[in-house]
Amino acid sequence: MDYLWVKYLHVTCVVLSVSLFVLRGTLELMAQPWRQWRLLKVAPHVIDTLLLTSALWLAWRIGQYPFVHGWLTAKVLALLAYILLGMRALGKNTSPGQRLPYFVAALLSVGYIVGVALTHSPSWGFL
Ligand code: HEM
What we know:
Layout: H1 3-29, H2 38-62, H3 70-90, H4 96-119
Helix pairs in contact: 1-2, 1-4, 3-4
This protein binds protoporphyrin IX containing FE.
């Protein structure tokens, strides 16, 4: 399979995943019942599975791996932070006052991942 096409797929999934997170987060902050909308419940799982599968395929194709190469280790750890913070931001048991800080922190971690992806460096090339 063409490397570039899979990279486009990966980046498309990133855009869709973050957009859907922002949409769900905004609806949650506005106290809208988004969980009743099937598309918003199912689509993120499908997209995130594709995002991770394409990520692993790309890493395998360029022979660079998390916990071997620093920038991919940073991506995986920040991805974990994004998932955990995102779960808190959208979680049913999160108090209204905590939602926004978790939401912003999740967006900061995904922003960090994009920086790492573009520079291939955990410090964005500053160190
Ligand atoms: C939410 C999580 C993620 C985001 C936002 C993200 C973002 C990106 C972006 C924007 C690119 C394109 C960079 C470019 O134009 O050169 C990219 C490429 C790539 N990503 Fe991710 N990624 C994520 C998760 C992962 C994970 C977990 C891995 C590792 C297993 C990974 C491995 C790769 C690889 C190998 C490339 C190709 C690098 C290249 O061809 O130079 N990504 N990612």
